[in-house]
Amino acid sequence: MRDVADAVGVSVKTVSNVVNATGQVGDETARRVRAAIEELGYRPNPLARGLNARSTDMVTLALPGLGHGYCAQLAAEVFALAEADGVSVVMEPTGGDRERELEVLRNRGGLSDGVLLMPASVTARDLEGLAFPAPAVMLGPRRVRGPFDGVASRDADAAESAVRLLLDRGAERIVLLGGEREPGGDSPAALRSAGYRRALAAAGREAAPDLVAGTAASSREDGHAAIRGLLDDGVRFDAVLALEDPLAHGALHALRAAGFGVPRQVRVAAFSNDDDAAYSVPGLTTVTADIRSMARRALDLLASRVLNSAGPRFHVDVPFTIIERESTFSYA
Fewer CB within 10 Å: N-end or C-end of the chain? Predict the structure, then answer.
């Protein structure tokens, strides 16, 4: 639909109006739109058709916030793909609060035709026996089984692969920066911590307690303070796996200030591939989920559920990629 709009020089909404015979579009403009549709071989997207059959042509995107790189990337992809489908997106920050997440799922007032929710606090038990007026898709690292479809990133597997990369590069003692000291749970930090432990166990090693550096938040300041603290305590390490890119940026700064070379003395890897990862010094090796695929699959699942609320629920995993940069390179 975006390609058709660009070819004709009109808005996506105008193309949507022609396709769905809604709104006021002049005869000449409509003719040009139809000609472009024929020339480009456009076929209406099921998301737009599913939602246009209802009332609002809107979906709600509910995220814990936008300060986090993962959330910001996901929001950008959802907005771009939905706009191309001729659908509007209503943003609903939840702050990760359980009651606010449930309120979004209740869709009070029928503000949208469906909900995309990244759950931070709500659990499958919270959803048992409750009736929800609009379809929803859960997306993000946490897998919440319940009456909704889900699209998840494989965070535990991704962390395991990142640790294997560090081990293959010669690392012996790997700091888990921002990690969980106790196994269990399904938060992103818990899942990534589980992958870290799994990779060490597969290599015949234990996760040393002094190498798990928890942080209050995921900022540069937190990463800097945690690594500075390890160095002050005399903890030996030759690699860092930071559970968020900002933590890694802070770690790089702390290591550089303490005179440690990266990657010659300490290798550093992280998660999310934020905008600074490629431009840090050295460039930061980072793990990233296929956020665009997550957004596309979630929108398509929501469209299918709008059209057919019955049937089995689908839970889809999206792939991840390790983007290796200078921070983990090997040197002879």
Answer: C
